[in-house]
Design brief:
The complex is a heterodimer of chains A (386) and B (288). The longest helix of chain A has 14 residues. Chain A starts with a helix and ends with a helix. In chain A, helix 4 packs parallel to helix 5, helix 10 crosses helix 20 and helix 11 packs parallel to helix 20. Chain A has 386 residues and is of the alpha/beta class. In chain A, strand 1, helix 5 and strand 2 form a beta-alpha-beta unit. In chain A, strands 6, 7, 8, 9, 10, 11 and 12 form a seven-stranded mixed beta sheet that branches. Chain A has a three-stranded parallel beta sheet with strand order 2-1-3. Chain A has two domains: 221 residues, Periplasmic binding protein-like II (D-Maltodextrin-Binding Protein, domain 2), CATH 3.40.190; 155 residues, Periplasmic binding protein-like II (D-Maltodextrin-Binding Protein, domain 2). Chain A contains 20 helices and twelve strands. The longest helix of chain B has 35 residues. Chain B has one domain: MetI-like (MetI-like fold), CATH 1.10.3720. In chain B, 73% of the residues lie in helices and 0% in strands. Chains A and B meet through helix 1, helix 2, helix 6, strand 8 and helix 20 of A and helix 5, helix 10 and helix 11 of B.
Chain lengths: 386, 288
């Protein structure tokens, strides 16, 4: 998947074909099909007449379009449809595979994003570089600090000023197609070993320095966040040894896993939950040797062209009733107890989404230094061009 | 004082050249100069560029040797494969096909360009993916074949995508071919095969060279096909550049690679063209 494509499409060709087949089989409704493929948003935009749906709650002029930068398979398209219906603002969705890519775009300027989804470890750097605005909390009445779990949300504030509001938390584990891979995989060490043996040519790693280098470090017994030259050198050696055996280097791994071109991948909670929901043979496993735990946030770039709409969408997403629908669709665990209370039992009891506390103890939050460390950036680039 | 004819002519020339010259200066020369300056700079602590004078970026070039090597190998191989496929098509179109339908047939060659290369390459992802050809192979008992994300898939995508660019120049040069030469050759007793190799092929070489040069030049900057059909594993210089600018945020290193690529391309092409001119004995070859 190219960067260009990810930025410009809200659905991949594979998704479209999948959904089309599901529609033809009658296993989804037409409405669902239109929703997930983004067609209904397109229809809504085309059919929209200014003024008719404008709600009095949005007295300020929000314009007609806004732009959101986020991650693959991370939202319920129905959310944006409802937002468009309520406000008259159509949401253009850009999809990225790494925080570094988002940072590069913001540093180069002229992104046009009004809202984007950075991960916890990047926020302090965005603040330092002056790329994001402090949030005006008076425009975000739906957000409730009291119901947030501080364990996950503290990095949204820098020196007491809130710059970002939590979207959800999650983990970085492994998705394994157990009908193809018989070896029992429990750790990152297993992941890289099986990638070179039983699953030769069938394993995906992220196009993302944090998780790809981090998981390689963990498999060698080092910290996920290490920037020590000798540890990074060992991780590079491992990654370059694994590379000829990989299926690909791509952060949008759902299409490959669903088509069973790939049998195992580095995987985020939400993708793990979505894959397992549709294909029960795909298991989601957390490394017993460690890995990443993370929180994604919403932030507003300083360069945003339509800040009122950015605030409006952010506030809309902070409403527990919108957040609960998003949660059910994308499968990433919430940081907000108000949302937790509204969730159906089958979501809260899902061990992929809400794993046992014991399996989380070895996981590490990404560290800010990994975002800007030149050695990690160069290692990733060397690994890819090797 | 009235303008002299010479002066008038000069002014006309200047007026005609000015728009293109200005365009190239602003969008080619200036950015290239910026790139050269960047190439001697340093990566800023958080990424981007900061002023410096160092050769470190050039010293780091060997770390991208694999990407250079891939590009330098796959581009000529891809162009050669295109040529093998394109020549018979162009030959048929210009010599063998019924002149009544020729225009329609030639238009058909161009039809794929009406759809974006991106969309067409995505179609290949689907055909080569597990639910495409490997699925059909599975039905006849050949299990778990993997086609996508291999160098073969990238080559296939290249031949598919660039074929029209090879067919057209060859077609044009064959169409201009004086048929009386072929008749003369036959009259003098040459067999069709030797007529082809001694008359047709040499006279179509300018078209072949143009096609090869066109395809190679574009391939050296190729990014899309290796990314989609190579899965980020079959890496071209284009992909390395995107990475350096959009992931590692190492503009100086990216600039150094880009400058080197330009220099290498100019060198390789001038040598290749020099040889081509010698071989074809003609100086009609144009790069584009």
């Amino acid at each position: 998947m190219t960067k260009w494509y990810r930025e410009n499409a809200s659905i991949t060709a594979e998704n479209l074909a999948d959904e089309w087949m599901r529609l033809k089989r009658g296993s989804v409704t037409r409405r669902h099909f239109l929703g997930v493929t983004g067609l209904s948003l397109a229809t809504a935009v085309l059919a929209r007449q200014p003024g008719i749906f404008s709600s009095p709650a949005y007295a300020q002029d929000l314009g007609t379009t806004m732009s959101l930068a986020t991650w693959p398979n991370y939202h319920d398209p129905a959310t944006f449809e409802a937002f468009t219906a309520a406000t008259g603002v159509a949401v253009e969705v850009n999809v990225f595979g790494s925080n570094e890519e988002m940072l590069a775009k913001l540093q180069a300027g002229g992104t046009g994003w009004d809202l984007f989804v950075p991960t916890n470890y990047t926020i302090s750097t965005y603040v330092k570089l002056g790329l994001i605005d402090p949030l005006d909390m008076s425009k975000l009445p739906a957000f409730s600090q009291a119901s947030q779990s501080p364990r996950f949300t503290s990095e949204g504030a820098v020196d007491g000023t809130t710059y970002a509001l939590p979207k959800n938390w999650g983990t970085t584990g492994m998705a394994v197609n157990t009908s193809k891979i018989k070896t029992k995989i429990t750790s990152w060490k297993d992941f890289f070993e099986v990638a070179m043996t039983e699953a030769d040519g069938r394993v995906l790693v992220h196009d993302y320095q944090l998780t790809t280098i981090g998981s390689a470090l963990v498999s060698l017994g080092y910290s996920f966040n290490s920037i020590k030259p000798e540890e990074l050198a060992k991780a590079e050696e491992l990654l370059i040894r694994v590379k000829p055996h990989l299926y690909g280097i791509n952060s949008d791994y759902q299409p490959g896993m669903r088509a069973t071109d790939a049998w195992m991948t580095m995987c985020w909670t939400n993708d793990g939950a979505q894959l397992n929901r549709d294909m029960p043979e795909i298991a989601y496993i957390l490394g017993s040797d460690g890995g990443e735990i993370w929180t994604d946030f919403y932030a507003i770039p300083k360069s945003a062209a339509n800040k009122p709409a950015g605030y409006a969408l952010l506030d809309y997403l902070m409403k527990p009733e919108s957040a609960v629908k998003e949660h059910i669709a994308n499968g990433a665990p919430t940081t907000d107890s108000r949302v937790m209370a509204l969730l159906p039992a089958d979501v809260t009891s899902n061990k992929i989404v809400y794993p046992d506390e014991a399996s989380l103890t070895k996981l590490e939050f990404g560290a800010a230094v990994t975002l800007t460390d030149p050695a990690r950036a160069e290692l990733m680039a060397r690994f890819k061009s090797a | 004082m009235p303008l002299t004819t010479d002066r008038k002519r000069q002014l006309t020339t200047a007026a005609l050249v000015a728009p293109a010259g200005l365009w190239l200066f602003v969008f080619l020369v200036l950015p290239f100069m910026a790139m050269v300056v960047f190439a001697f700079g340093e990566r800023a602590p958080e990424g981007g560029y900061q002023a410096a004078f160092t050769f470190a970026q050039f010293a780091n070039l060997p770390s991208r040797a694999a990407a250079f090597w891939n590009t330098m190998m796959i581009a000529p191989v891809g162009a050669f494969l295109c040529l093998i496929v394109a020549y018979p098509v162009a030959y048929y179109l210009s010599i063998k096909s019924n002149p009544k339908y020729r225009l329609v047939l030639v238009s058909l060659v161009v039809v794929p360009f009406w759809t974006s290369l991106l969309v067409r390459t995505y179609a290949w992802m689907y055909i080569l993916g597990s639910r495409g050809i490997p699925n059909l192979l599975g039905m006849i008992g050949i299990e778990d074949v993997r086609l996508l994300n291999t160098p073969g898939a990238v080559l296939l995508g290249i031949v598919y995508g660039y074929l029209p660019l090879m067919i057209m120049p060859i077609y044009v040069s064959l169409e201009k071919l004086d048929r009386r030469l072929l008749e003369a050759s036959a009259d003098l007793g040459a067999k069709p095969v030797s007529t082809f190799f001694r008359i047709t092929l040499p006279l179509s070489l300018p078209g072949v060279m143009t096609g090869v040069a066109l395809v190679i030049i574009l391939l050296l900057g190729e990014y899309l096909i290796p990314q989609l059909l190579g899965g980020g594993k079959v890496f071209f210089i284009g992909n390395a550049l995107v990475d350096l600018f959009l992931q590692s945020r190492n503009w100086p290193s990216g600039s150094a690679i880009a400058v080197t690529l330009v220099v290498v391309v100019v060198l390789v092409l001038s040598v290749a063209m020099h040889i081509a001119w010698k071989v074809s004995g003609s100086r009609q070859v144009e790069l584009v």
